Hints:
The protein is mainly alpha-helical.
Amino acid sequence: MPIMTTLRRCSRFTTVLALAGALVTSGACNEFLAVDNPSAIQAEDLTDPRYATLIANGVVGEFQPMFSNLAWWNGVFADELYNRAVFFEEGLIDQRNVTETNGTFSTFLYGPLHRTRWLADDGAARLKEAMGDTATRDLRLARVLAYGGYSYLYLAEMQCNSPIDRSAPKSPDELVALAMARFTEAVAVATAARAAQPLPTTATALGADSIRFLSLIGSARASLYANKATEAAAYAATVIAQAPANWEARVYYSATRRGRTTGSGIA
Length: 267
């Protein structure tokens, strides 16, 4: 039998087998890519009031490790800390030679900052939709706004400019203005949450005070950055006059790296 004829028959036979296999597969698994993860929250449910606490906790949970990395790498950048790691990118941070190609900076600083910022903005919008009119006195919204304000403030302090949600790069002054807007709203919501409590010593009332003081400190810090010393002093004076003597804004974190196991940082 000629070789070419044999090859043609083999080719036709292979094609028939492939078609038969495809038919069997499509009949048995016509929705092969349709999967269901029972633990996942569907997009349409993200404005369900039942998930309000989860949304707020997500922002806090993203902020905590971000803040520890921020404190670490800023300390290295300013020669307040020494980093003896062998990664060449880390040495460049110590030399203050940080470009957009520095993977350590983008992975441990820039990326986490923007994730926290985005989660705070997205969470605030979802909480307002989910809670309706009650959001204006909901402590969870106040907390999300306060952490979002600090994220914008840190971006202003650490970046020459930074895009927001694919916008044109915003200047530090613009980022500070965005931070101030969130601090101001956080103070208003926390104040309303405090006023809605029947007793001044309830956990929600105390939490509202804490978030309000945290936001006022953020406002003072942002005002200092904007060279508005009088406004900064006024915000700080409010905290000094109203906060308990032992009050402090504290962010707890846990890390596995040597020398950074467990501790706290003042926000």
